[in-house]
Design a protein that fits this description.
The chain is built from 22 helices and no strands. The chain is mostly helical. The protein has a single domain, classed as Hydantoin permease, CATH 1.10.4160.10. Helix 16 packs across helix 17 and helix 19 packs antiparallel against helix 20. The longest helix has about 35 residues. The protein is globular.
Length: about 475
């Protein structure tokens, strides 16, 4: 196997290098706690509460979220396999299907979605700090631009964690997960007590008057549930490259993702339903809800919970991937840290306050919309790795020009065509009203079309699967 010095410097830096087995220290608990910490966050709460605000009953909302997360767990585990086996991150893994240069296209698409999420999480964290400070320190409300000061202060905190690197992320996930679940349950107990218990909270029926009316809301909602973690379903190799074994990462994810999402979603559903009992209308934004109670102790506990949860999720889910993706554009000039700073700047420029204007814009605009871009990428990656290559990769060639993944001047145009076909199928419903159902199924349409087109084109080209060389043994 080649040494690092023999790789093309335009395709390699220490942050993108395969992780040697001596540094693969993440076990089942690390992956389970990673998902608990990423799931226990305000966007998860808003996802669940948005379904209630849209008309679902509590059990309809919970089943929709559970089903969506069980579905997205499948591509999550499939893409995770390469990371754990070869120790490579997402932007390197995707070179196998798109080519060593063509991989920049899906990597940048994934990175831009992550930038949007980074902005959303940072905006939520900043607004939460500002809202809580107004309760704890009322004179703060009189400070000109106080909300923006809190926003950029929280942004700076995120950047500080990015600067310290992946080990800090691992530490935060390990201690944050049990702490955040406890605080979420405490909030549930407190507000349902105000509403007279769980009975009145969970007795509200669905607002849909027919099965057809429910299905029209359910289908895009399910797509949004899948789209919520369709981002990490692509870049999960960024985390599983540190796994002790395939079993540890697969078991940790299978235990952590569905259970954590469903449990915390139930908290969001119950608390939102309780707000309808107390205030006469459901309040889907937890920051606005907490401001209604105007209680200093509650505000302090909520402030700590929101900051820890949002910081955990933001750095792990929305910084690791785009940092690697931007680094992949020019490994010689862009390190993991520099990629993280780029993510932070673009996240602000995407104006997250507009994406959170209401639950419809959040669920049906943002989540469903970008799922039509990420589903096709997942379709190509999974079809290439499992159908075309039978899970066999030649790691050296992922880091050099002229190797097996060179294709046509570094670009596999078959993958690009398959990606374009999937995106067109997913988003066609936006342009043609009579085909809007295609948009409702955006992730599913894109995944199926891109995967099928890619396999057809690659088999016509008679591209052979390559046998993988031994696992990476070099130290970096």
């Amino acid at each position: 196997m080649k040494r690092a010095g023999e790789f093309d410097p335009a395709l390699y830096n220490p942050d993108l290098a395969p992780v040697p087995e001596s540094r693969r220290s993440w076990g089942t608990y690390n992956y389970a706690s990673l998902w608990v910490a990423m799931s226990v966050c305000i966007p998860t709460y808003m996802l669940a509460s948005g379904l209630i605000a849209g008309g679902m009953s509590w059990w309809q909302a919970i089943l929709t979220i559970l089903l969506g997360n069980l579905i997205v767990l499948i591509p999550m585990l499939l893409n995770a396999h390469a990371g754990a086996r070869y120790g490579i991150p997402f932007p390197v893994f995707v070179r196998a299907s798109f080519g060593v240069r063509g991989a920049n296209i899906p990597a940048v698409l994934r990175a831009l979605v992550a930038c949007g999420w980074f902005g959303i999480q940072t905006w939520i964290g900043g607004q939460a700090i500002y809202t809580m400070l107004k309760i704890l320190w009322p004179s703060a409300a009189a400070v000109s631009g106080g909300a923006w000061i809190c926003f950029f202060a929280f942004w700076a905190l995120n950047v500080a964690v990015i600067w310290r690197g992946i080990d800090t992320i691992k530490f935060l996930e390990g201690i944050g997960a049990p702490f955040m679940l406890g605080l979420g349950l405490l909030l549930l107990w407190w507000i349902t007590g105000k509403a007279g218990g769980l009975g009145p909270v969970l007795s509200a029926p669905s607002k849909f008057h027919s099965a057809g009316e429910f299905v029209r809301f359910f289908i895009p909602s399910l797509t949004a549930m899948v789209g919520f973690w369709a981002t990490v379903a692509l870049n999960i190799p960024d985390f599983t490259r540190y796994a002790k074994s395939q079993k540890s990462q697969a078991l940790g994810q299978a235990l952590g993702l569905p259970i954590a999402m469903t449990l915390y979603s139930f908290i969001g559903v119950a608390v939102t339903s309780a707000s309808a009992v107390i205030f006469g209308a459901p309040i889907w934004d937890p920051v606005q809800l907490l401001a209604r109670f105007n209680h200093p102790l509650v505000a302090f506990i909520a402030l700590v919970a929101i900051v820890v949860a949002t910081l955990n999720t933001n750095v792990a889910a929305n910084v690791v991937s785009p940092s690697n993706d931007f680094s992949n554009l020019n490994p010689r000039l862009i390190s993991f840290r520099t990629g993280g700073l780029i993510t932070g700047v673009i996240g602000v420029l995407m104006m997250p306050w507009k994406l959170l204007s209401d639950f419809s814009a959040y669920i049906f605009g943002w989540l469903v919309g970008y799922s039509g871009l990420l589903g096709p990428i997942a379709g190509v990656m999974i079809a290439d790795y499992f159908v075309i290559r039978r899970a066999q990769l030649t790691v050296d060639d992922l880091y050099r020009r002229g190797g097996f993944y060179e294709y046509d001047n570094g670009v596999n145009w078959r993958a690009i065509l398959a990606l374009a076909a999937g995106v067109a199928a997913a988003l066609l419903g936006l342009a043609v009203p009579s085909l809007h159902l295609l948009y409702d199924y955006a992730w599913f349409d894109g995944f199926a079309v891109s995967g099928a087109v890619y396999v057809m084109l690659m088999r016509r080209a008679e591209t052979p699967a390559r046998q993988a060389e031994p696992e990476w043994e070099g130290e970096v």
